[in-house]
Amino acid sequence: MPIRLGNKAEGADFFDRETEREALWRHLEGNHVVVSGPRRLGKTSVLQRLAEEAPERGLLGRLVDLEGLDTPAAFIRAMDGAFPDATVSGHARGAAGAMGGWLSRLRKIDVKLPGGMGGGIELQGPPDADWAADAARLQQRLAAAPVLLLLDEVSVFLEKALARDPADTVRLLAWLRAWRQQSGLVCRFIFSGSIGLNALLDRHGLVTYFNDCFDLGLGPFTEPAALQMLAAECAREGWTAAEETLRHLCARVGWLSPFYLNLLMDSAMAAARDRRQETGAPEQRVQQSDIDDGFDRLLAVRSRFIHWYRRLQRDLDPADLTLALRVLAAVAKPDDGLTRRQILARLAKLEPDPDRRAARLDAVMIVLEEDGYLSPAGDRIRFPSFILREYWRRNHAR
Amino acid sequence: MPAEQRPASPAAAGLALGATVKYNPHLWAPDELRAIFVVRTRELADLLARLRATADGQVAQHLLITGAGGMGRTTLLRRLALAVADDPDLAARWIAVTFPEEQYTVSTLAELWRNVLNALADAREREGASPAELKGLDAEIRRIGELPIEAREAAALTALTAWVAANGRRLLLLIDSTDLILANIAGAVAGAARAKRPRDPGRADGGATPLWRLRSTLSHDSGIFWLGTSSQALEAEHAYEDAFWDFFDRLELRPLQVAEMRVAMLALARTFGAGRGLTGAAGEREMARTLDQRPEWLRALRAITGGNPRTTVMLYELFAAGGADDVHSDLCRLLDSMTPRYQARMESLSDQARKLLAHLLEHWAPVSARTLGELAGVPTNTVSGQLVRLEAEGLIEKAPLKASKKAGYQAAERLFNVWYLMRYPSRRVRRRLDWLVEFLRLWYGGDAMPALARPRAGPQADEAYREIIARVGADAQRIADDGAGSTSHGAEQLGHAPLLLQAHLWLGNRDLARQALDRLAQAAAAGNAEAFARIREQVSECHAIGLGPALRDLMNASAWADLLQPFALALDAAAAADPAEALAGTPAELRAVAEEVLANSFEF
Question: Which residues of B touch A39 (CB under 8 A)?
Fold first, then answer.
């Protein structure tokens, strides 16, 4: 089976994330959740897995893909289509025992409203919109039903919808928030967004429409999980690899995103196949040299990287460009990135005024994070893509 | 012409395969394609393995084949379609759906899915589907076309899904120019505002809603495997927040190596003929004989074509003719036939890009961005941006600068560079044409040189080419006419060693260059004054075209290193910022000779 790179991981392709899934189920007992993180981290795969686990927890889970939608009406239709009446009632009939367990675990959701008001609120009437009637019916059907609404690619949908009709989109968000804060609510929402969800909300002044949700940032794999995944993929392809070889792969990747782990594994296997063909080596064993060859092969494809630099040249003003390039050059040099303080220190010459320096760094970091160049990892800022880091280090960090 | 009416091998029918057919893979008959397809076999095997490993019901890992123009993307797609049809197990699970190379009419998802339905009907017809089935498909396509516009996309997709479910076979969409199709679909979205990027309104919106809908379909529908081509990675134009960022896996088609080019040439000879009407095994034998006689031709071919399969096919005719006396006419004709394509290539560029490319082409050897900027009078940071663009378009490539760890740039397709130098030679550039003289000597060899001396008449003869041939002819004549006497004896003793030394250095054939150098040095050691003069001449010429360090290294490693030491020192000094400083510390006797070589051989 080919190593999965672009699509969500399902079945035997899905590895680990046990800690994250346990945390999500725990938080869902008392919260709705926003799952955030850069692209290609596996958020959709995690959501899909939760949908599969939902029945044993008494819930009917459905993953609703919001990409490709750009109006509130389409949003309502998609949710309606994912939870047909027959399916919801069928689930309620068939999962009575598990449902009871879920209901007993539920905690009343704490509601924080502007002005310090607390407590649950009654169902609010939907706004005056052409989708209002459909929305009301949907809410009535699902509010008291043990359903888990897994809404994927929220940020993509919001950006489109806001560009098309900001007022109508804000009405939708308000209605959704009111639904979430309804008393006696049994259903739960998980929203997943990567592409600058928080920045998008901030830019449009919409943070309050999601601040009732618990924000769970998805991070990289742990090393044991990464090793398990890589070993399984090797075996599936009919190859072996010593644990130290796989550790070497992890070390070269750095930030253990499953996408980048798979990318390097795929390239290393291609290098191993070529080596075996050239040398006539009998055994199908991935060696450390194959990892290094695979790494160099990924970097050799210049068309994959040139645009990262060109995009900054195209999109930033000269002053911001200089700052952005300085930040990237600094962060590219060490393997594990830099702290914000360390970055600021390296910008002192460029911007002597400390307050202005901090403000400029914050502004440029929004762009660099949203566009996938850099990502926070604990208290450090680093390149999420090891390949991009290495490309930048070799070409722009001198 | 329908495939069944086409002769199995055009060469067997006594017809030369027209350029139109030869350079258009989609016009090759299946048997021709199977016969010619010999070098991308590993890539084909990889793709077939992916298909076999994609389990039923599992969403496929969609893939793009990338590579510059002429690298064989379309040919690989076509060959894959044949391979799937030829394999009973694969054919039972997949149906390969192919399209014309450019689907110019597609600008919406509705049009895309309708095109897929049409192509599916074509594929089923080729498989011998019943008239009733074909009629049903055609009726469905017509029905969808009569629906309101906003309903067509969903209807077409539903029809495809239904066909997959009913037939138990999944759609392998072999879609050429995926990048252009996605750009068309994105560009056709009216009022597609990019809230975040107001500064680039001219760029196609990689985040347009239809592209996200397409991504959603490809992410969830296990009945469709999108296996397309693209000139470059989508990420070159798409942004991080766009729909297809890091979505497709990629298979990059690399330039052919010399061994692969040989395999390709033999297959072409077998299929299209070689020599005087020889076909099949005889044609292949003839081609093999030609290649074995002059192994340096393949290396030269590799250098000129950049390993580009399409250009290789074009040049194979020269080898197929077997080095006959009208080969150089064929070369000129070939370059003439390339003119519309190459001229269009130049004219499609912006003024600044064209100017930079022209200077780079005039330089021939790899040149740094800084030097290029100085030559063109363009600021370095501007040059860098333009070079990045030219590289992304496949017109130039990075190559190591001579005697440096740094990288410079050169034309990716060397034949394009040859064409340019022959068409636009300024007085300054004529000096660069020395390389072409050596290349022609190498190409045609000593036996053909008298023939080259005959002036080439004809209204289309290029002025510079006549000059080159005249020069080659003059040299040949001089060598042929020289009789007894130390000079003529010396010249005969040397043969073509001086010219072969330079040519082989340029081509990187170190062993052959060393043989030529040893021949010169041996003659010089025996007192041949001509040999000394030729060594000095080569020192000067190699330095002028950037081969100085290579020649110096060769001299230092030669069995005649002692004899050649002054020349090696002179080359070192010539490359230094301060030649006198470079020679400081050299023993006086050696230094004197080196200074004399410096004074007489180099222009400062």
Answer: 240, 245-246
